[in-house]
Amino acid sequence: MDALDRLYDSLDARLRPEDVATLVLEARPSLPNRVHFLLRDVAMHGNRWHGFSGMSADYARPVGAARQVAAARFLFGVDGGVVDVDDPISVLEFAALVGSEINWDPARTDFLADRLNRDARAAAGIELSKRQYNRRFRMLRRLSAKAARLERVRKMRGMTLLAAAGFVDAIDRERFRADPDAACFIAYFTARRKLRREFTLSGRQNPFDQVADALFAHCTARDGTDWPMIALACPTWDVLRRLRPEQVGELLGRWSAATRSVAVSLGELWSSSDIDQATMVVRRGVDSSTWNALAGAYNAARAGWIACLHASGLTSLVEDAWPGKVMRVVAADLAGWHQMSGGGLHPDTSVWSRLPLPWNVLEGTAPCSRADIEAACREHLVDPSKSGWTAPRTHGAIARFRPTPELVHGVAVSDPLWAMALRRAHAFSGKPVRTEVFGGQDTLD
Question: Which residue from 87, 286, 332, 370 could staple onto 322, CB 3.0 to 4.6 Å apart?
Answer without folding.
Answer: 370
